[in-house]
């Protein structure tokens, strides 16, 4: 009997169903990679162009070399400086160390989000019911992450090549591409670290913490290697050291790519192997699925927020404390180097600073830590939004708890965390400075720490406003504000830009204490604007529907 | 309750204090009408079932009652308290159980219950412990280690342990096994005996039929039926099954007869209005056995699905 024509065979659902994990992961990773590629590219371009405008004469450039070329304290922090008398050397010095860290953090977060995060959310369960295995899915996800990395590299390389075409910058195409490759090397390694940590840990947060420990250890090794204590060989023991040894734009060397590639392949291989040896949702390291009752803090919205944020806040607090201590510890020698640099003093002057020596150096150091603190603020805001987006907030707001109280508790919590964070940074920086015999007064360093708080509070206020009026844009608006501010500060600190543009940066509103006295009036205005924004956000939040992702 | 002419009229309870009242309650999401002009009253102590296909507006109704969503038009009250203007006051008397339990993965079940109890402000601790035992929940486990069913148990216990005056339940037994489903039914019977009001949205029609005093059926965002089971049956078709010795007659075109299914010598159909035309048609064909019964809730519900398909097509997916 012929088959019933009405009952047809299922048609293939799109291209290559067996590669759906790779394509989904690639789509998400590439979107993020493109965004950060633009950021990388703009950093490269701004560094090259501002060098040209700030160091026009041979004397200025030689002065720069004298100040930075052999300063081991600064080398420990930012990596060694080569050929600072050239735009290529300065650009490599300015962005390579910084963007390697940024790239590593991006890689780690992307790797854990797109592997363990997807598994946590239960989406892998659906995908693994399709035409793939656990190992196959892990391999596909790694391929997808590779596509994201390729996008990061491609966009970075494109902007770098275009920048290099300028007759004054003049990077050869090959040099520019190699520089872009060096910039994304740490991102590649930590994507793989994130993927492996996703097999070891039971949750995305745990995986990110494991990867974070590895990242911190690698950075410390690199610092030791560059600290001029005869341990230069340690550079070969860490991915950040390999990136330095590539010496892009100055003396390119392909050899360090070998350990980089080897490590990536080993990590990827271990990821795929472990994915096949464990159950979906389980971890290689045993997870504590039970715990004794700990009701402390679980008394309401404020306590719950404190309980949920505690691990993240503690991790950030530790990172800030260590960073502040190190900055303080090397403040004296770094200050000596800076005091001989007219160009750096001009940069500080742009930022409103009038100090010199260790004060001036710490002015820049506190600016960098302020960037860390505003990221803490943004994390608090996006965590609040996640409570609503993922449906957990429903359980609180269907009980006798007003939206005003909930959002107010979250904002208060963030305010307290940031205030304590600023104070702690000041205290630890002073402890470091005292250990390094920098001879800086306690009050001015603590004031410098507190001076970092208003921009972070402003971010919280703006975040609360966006939660109220356009909740789905919370993450992009808060992180966008921060990235914009960093870019404007990077460009504006080295050139005479329009002050209207500079004023749009959070950090331009902040006095570079302790290089100059904190501007409490400006800080107060920022805080007040942030508070007003939060109030408007809370009012809008009361009047809208709760919305998911 | 006397016979009625419209779903809205049938939505009114017989006297007593009102637990839920909505007037012209409407919600629009962009171009989609998720809920249209809902007039509903539920008396204190009633157990009311709320049925409808996916996207009919059940969850939207409950989210409007809880103030989680803002109505496009109309108003809603719980025990006379405006749900939008005074949500906190209304929530003091309400417990809500959603169909999907998205909880804090790092907390244990016991910590989650403690937290939700503290936020609610009142907990019958003895009853909570009894519920944990009754639902066989290991409360020392972290939420991220729970299966979907166990997460649902947590949220169910969190709602029931408050002994709230009004239980708003949105597919509360999703993911529960049959034994736990029985435990849930027992809890609802207890709640009724204690005088609590229950508003139960469910896809498990046998559950609604077993538990509810009245049932409302939503279609395309509008309340199309509301009444007791007896009232709904009265308004609906009778199911007739006839077995013949010989060939089955063609019942197409017989007045009041629809949904005709023939298997061998047996015909099954629905009859609206008088059964006399059908009996005349059957008598002429040598009927051997004749059975009839009132429609179950499932049949009533499916009949509405059928009518929807005939008259309206696919409803919007608006929750």
Report mean pLDDT of chain B, rounded to a whole number. 86
Gyration radius from CA atoms of chain A, angstroms: 25 Å
Structural class of chain A: mainly alpha
SSE order of chain A: HHHHHHHHHHHHHHHHHHHHH
Terminus-to-terminus distance of chain A: 51 Å
Count of DSSP strands of chain A? 0
Describe this structure in words.
The complex is a heterodimer of chains A (549) and B (319). Chain A has helices spanning 20-54, 58-68, 72-78, 87-120, 123-128, 134-164, 173-200, 204-225, 239-246, 257-277, 301-329, 331-339, 342-350, 357-389, 392-397, 403-435, 442-451, 453-469, 474-492, 499-502, 520-542. By secondary structure, chain A is an all-alpha fold. Chain B is of the alpha/beta class and 319 residues long. Chain B is elongated, with a radius of gyration of 22 Å. Residues 1-11 and 310-319 of chain B have low confidence and may be disordered.
Keywords for this structure?
heterodimer, A: 549 residues, mainly alpha, 21 helices, 0% strand, B: 319 residues, Rossmann fold, 2 domains, 6-stranded mixed beta sheet, 29% strand, elongated
């Amino acid at each position: 009997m012929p088959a019933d024509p009405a009952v047809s065979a299922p048609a293939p659902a799109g291209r290559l169903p067996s590669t759906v994990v790779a394509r989904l992961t690639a789509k998400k990773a590439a979107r993020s990679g493109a965004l950060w590629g633009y950021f990388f590219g703009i950093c490269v371009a701004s560094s090259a162009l501002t060098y040209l405008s700030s160091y026009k004469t041979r004397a200025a450039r030689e002065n720069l070399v004298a100040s930075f070329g052999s300063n081991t304290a600064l080398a420990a922090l930012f990596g060694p400086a080569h050929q600072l008398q050239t735009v290529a050397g300065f650009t490599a010095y300015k962005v390579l160390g910084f963007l390697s860290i940024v790239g590593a953090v991006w890689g780690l977060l992307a790797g854990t989000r797109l592997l363990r995060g997807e598994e946590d959310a239960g989406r892998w369960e659906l995908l693994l019911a399709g035409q793939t295995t656990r190992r196959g899915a892990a391999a596909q996800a790694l391929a997808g992450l590779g596509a994201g990395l390729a996008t990061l590299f491609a966009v970075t390389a494109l902007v770098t090549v275009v920048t290099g075409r300028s007759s004054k910058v003049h990077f050869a195409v090959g040099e520019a591409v190699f520089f872009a490759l060096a910039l994304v090397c740490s991102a590649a390694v930590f994507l793989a670290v994130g993927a492996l940590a996703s097999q070891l840990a039971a949750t995305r947060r745990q995986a990110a913490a494991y990867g974070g420990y590895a990242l911190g250890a690698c950075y410390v090794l690199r610092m030791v290697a560059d600290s001029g204590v005869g341990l230069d060989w340690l550079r070969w023991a860490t991915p950040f050291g390999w990136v330095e040894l590539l010496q892009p734009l100055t003396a390119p060397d392909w050899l360090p790519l070998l350990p980089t590639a080897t490590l990536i392949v080993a990590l990827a291989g271990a990821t795929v192997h472990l994915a096949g040896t464990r159950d979906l949702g389980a971890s290689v390291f045993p997870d504590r699925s039970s715990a004794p009752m700990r009701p402390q803090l679980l008394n309401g919205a404020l306590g719950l927020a404190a309980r949920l944020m505690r691990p993240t806040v503690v991790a950030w607090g530790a990172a800030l404390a260590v960073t502040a201590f190190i900055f303080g510890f090397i403040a004296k020698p770094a200050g000596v180097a800076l005091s001989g640099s007219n160009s750096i003093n001009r940069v500080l002057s742009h930022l409103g600073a009038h100090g010199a020596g260790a004060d001036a150096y710490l002015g820049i150091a506190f600016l960098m830590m302020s960037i860390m603190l505003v990221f803490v603020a943004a994390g608090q805001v996006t965590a609040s939004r996640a409570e609503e987006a993922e449906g957990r907030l429903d359980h609180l707001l269907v009980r006798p708890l007003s939206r005003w109280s909930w959002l107010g508790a979250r904002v208060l919590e963030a305010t307290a965390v940031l205030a304590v964070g600023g104070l702690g940074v000041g205290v630890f920086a002073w402890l470091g400075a005292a250990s390094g015999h920098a001879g800086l007064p306690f009050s001015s360093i603590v004031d410098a720490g507190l001076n970092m708080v208003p921009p972070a509070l402003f971010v919280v206020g703006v975040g609360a406003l966006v939660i109220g009026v356009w909740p789905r844009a919370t993450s992009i608006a808060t992180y966008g504000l921060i990235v914009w501010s960093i870019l404007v500060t990077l460009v504006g600190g080295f050139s005479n830009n329009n002050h209207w543009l500079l004023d749009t940066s959070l950090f331009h509103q902040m006095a570079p204490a302790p290089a100059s006295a904190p501007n409490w009036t400006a800080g107060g205005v920022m805080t007040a604007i942030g508070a007003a924004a939060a109030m408007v956000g809370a009012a809008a939040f009361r009047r809208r529907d709760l919305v998911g992702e | 309750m006397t016979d009625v002419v419209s779903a809205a009229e049938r939505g009114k309870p017989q006297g007593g204090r009102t637990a839920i009242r909505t007037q012209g309650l409407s919600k629009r999401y962009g171009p989609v009408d998720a809920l249209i002009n809902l007039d509903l009253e539920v008396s204190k102590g009633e157990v009311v079932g709320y049925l409808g296909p996916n996207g009919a507006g059940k969850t939207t109704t409950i989210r409007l009652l809880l103030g989680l969503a803002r109505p496009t038009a109309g108003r809603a009250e719980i025990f006379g308290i405006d749900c939008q203007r005074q949500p906190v006051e209304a929530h003091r008397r309400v417990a809500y159980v959603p169909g999907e339990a998205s909880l804090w993965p790092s907390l244990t079940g016991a910590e989650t219950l403690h937290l939700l109890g503290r936020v609610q402000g009142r907990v019958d601790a003895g009853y909570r412990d009894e519920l944990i035992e009754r639902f066989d929940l290991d409360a020392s486990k972290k939420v991220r280690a729970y299966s979907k069913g166990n997460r649902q148990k947590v949220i169910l216990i969190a709602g029931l342990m408050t002994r709230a005056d009004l239980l708003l339940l949105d597919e509360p037994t999703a993911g529960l096994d049959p034994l736990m489903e029985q435990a849930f039914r027992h809890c609802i019977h207890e709640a009724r005996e204690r005088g609590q009001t229950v508003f139960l949205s469910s896809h498990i029609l046998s559950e609604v039929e077993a538990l509810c005093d009245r049932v409302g059926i939503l279609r395309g965002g509008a309340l199309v039926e509301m009444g007791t089971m007896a009232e709904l049956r009265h308004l609906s078709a009778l199911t007739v099954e006839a077995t013949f010795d010989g060939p089955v007659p063609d019942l197409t075109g017989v007045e009041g007869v629809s949904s005709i299914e023939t298997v061998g010598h047996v015909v099954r159909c629905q009859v609206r209005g008088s059964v006399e035309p059908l009996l005349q048609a059957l008598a002429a064909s040598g009927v051997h056995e004749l059975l009839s019964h009132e429609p179950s809730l499932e049949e009533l519900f499916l009949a509405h699905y059928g009518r929807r398909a005939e008259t309206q097509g696919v409803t919007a997916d608006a929750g």
